[in-house]
Amino acid sequence: MNSYNVLAVIPARGGSKGLRNKNIRDLCGYPLIKYSIDCAKKSMFITDFIVSTDSINISEISKSLGAHVPFIRPNELSSDNALSLPVMQHATKYMETSLDKIYDAILMLQPTTPLRLSIDVDTAITLMLNGNYDSVISVVDVDGYHPYRMKKIQNNLLVNFIDQGFEDMRPRQELPKLYIRNGAVYLTKRNILMEQNSFVGEKCAPLVMDKERSINIDTIADFKLAEFYLENQK
């Protein structure tokens, strides 16, 4: 495992449309980004980890929390429309050039999933190695938000999003098991990210996480829910 080089990148843009300064907003007495930094620090298998940010303030806070911030992200990768893929590719190229090494896998740890644990990260890396997967993506059960229950509005009428020819009233326990990405772990082999321009290879393994650790913060309500779970962990 020690010969398997994994670069973890925590992307933390300064701007936020939904919540001002979201990535450093106080969550149970600490900046939100601290939880992802701590997760990376506690991992047994991450080789190097950095914070990629366009914000001097986030950079200074991250450094004070023990993170390496080797650059300030270029403006073209920091707009509201900037995608995660080129951000991760930029960070990978920078680190490989500066350290003169080639990584085996790249891991994106979004700061908006603060209840993710280092065991989740290490399980994903172990899964990739043992199963020879191209990528490992964390997911959570859709629970009550099942596509068979979803609707769309068409010509001012409420119709089934997935037309089975009948109204599906089965209890959720009887519906087919389905999962959705929770944003906590995106682990990808280097060649998939850098050469195929994707986070997901043909052999993609699921890392199934529970609902509590899958909170992805976008709103004040998400913050309150994360606070509740964190306070009850203590």
Mean pLDDT: 92
- The helical percent reads 25-40%
Shape: globular
- The total tally of domains equals 2
In the CATH hierarchy, the architecture of the largest domain is Alpha-Beta Complex
- Return the CATH class of the largest domain: Alpha Beta
Task: Give the SSE string.
Answer: EEEHEHHEHEEEEHEH
Assign the CATH topology of the largest domain. Spore Coat Polysaccharide Biosynthesis Protein SpsA, Chain A
Low-confidence stretches: none
Structural class: alpha/beta
Strand content is 15-25%
Largest sheet: 6 strands, mixed
Radius of gyration: 19 Å
Please specify the SSE layout and strand pairing.
Blueprint (H helix, E strand, L loop, with lengths): L5 E6 L14 E2 L2 E2 L1 H10 L5 E5 L3 H9 L19 H16 L5 E4 L9 H14 L3 E7 L9 E4 L2 E4 L18 E11 H5 L9 E5 L11 H12 L3
Parallel strand pairs: 1-4, 1-5, 6-10
Antiparallel strand pairs: 2-3, 5-9, 6-9, 7-8
